[in-house]
Amino acid sequence: MSDPMRIRAQAAGDKITVRVLMSHEMETGQRKDSSGKVIPAWFIQEVVATHNGKTVLSAEWGPSIAKNPFLQFTIKGGKAGDKVTISWTDNKGDKRSDEATVT
Q1: Residues 6+ apart with CB under 8 A from 14
Q2: Beta partners for 38?
Q3: Terminus of the chain with fewer CB atoms < 10 Å: N or C?
């Protein structure tokens, strides 16, 4: 399993700004190693964000996303103390899920 995501969720009024830094190599499948062999594709395919158990964001990514991707989005109708969970699945079936409390 990969390193934990760094999630920051901050409330301002009734909106929550969520910032996520995901730790993942994100190989495109087009680069070659030093011996000339193609490095196999390995990237996050699906990202899901939930707010207090309700899905608020669902995204399908491809191999063109940068290494250690950063994601930022806003949720309406939130407050301090709410829970935000971010989950991802990559093309090899690896999964990661982390949770943060809104401040």
Answers
A1: 76, 77, 78, 79
A2: 32
A3: N
Given a contact cutoff of 8 angstroms between Cβ atoms, the answer to whether 65 and 43 are in contact is yes
Global confidence as pTM: 0.87
- Residue 99: CB atoms within 10 A of its CB come to 13
Q: Which residues of the chain fall below pLDDT 70?
A: 1-2
**Residue 6 buriedness (CB in 10 A; 0-12 / 13-18 / 19+):** middle
Structural domains in the chain plus CATH codes = 6-31+38-101 (2.60.40.10)
Strands 70-76, 83-90: pairing is: unpaired
Amino acid sitting at position 5: M
φ, ψ at 55 (rounded to 5°): -65, 125
- Both tokens of 86, joined, read 């971010």
pLDDT score of 68? 93
Number of helices (H), then strands (E), belonging to the chain: the values are: 0, 7
